[in-house]
Amino acid sequence: MIEFLEIRGMIQRLIPGARVEVSDMTGTGDHFEILVVSKAFEGKPLMEQHKMVFAALEDEMKDRIHAVKLKTKVK
Fold first, then answer.
1. How far apart are CA 50 and CA 71, in angstroms?
2. Which of the four CATH numbers 3.30.300.90, 3.10.129.10, 1.10.60.30, 3.40.50.300 does domain 4-73 have?
3. Which pLDDT score, from 0 to 100, does residue 75 have?
4. Where does residue 38 rank: exposed (0-12), middle (13-18), buried (19+ CB within 10 A)?
5. pLDDT digits (tens, 9 = 90+) for 4-45
6. Three-state helix/strand/coil letters over 12-59
7. At a CB cut-off of 8 Å and minimum separation 6, what does 58 contact?
8. Does the reported pTM lie above 0.85?
9. What's the sign of the alpha-carbon dihedral 67, 19, 56, 53?
């Protein structure tokens, strides 16, 4: 099981200044809904924004995170 603060920290280390909201979609601690708002996304297509976030979670998605519903926005 992974904590919300841990997920938020991983994303914020890779995307400094990002506002990150994390919620558990199923109550099982491995399916998450994540909203990331950052100026770093400005001018980048949606796919590139998502790649930035998934790069931060890549190692954890091998075993601790099963699914992510991701939404990104430019600040």
1. 8
2. 3.30.300.90
3. 84
4. buried
5. 999 999 999 999 999 999 999 999 999 999 999 999 999 999
6. HHHCCCCEEEEEECCCCCCEEEEEEECHHHCCCCHHHHHHHHHHHHCC
7. none
8. yes
9. positive
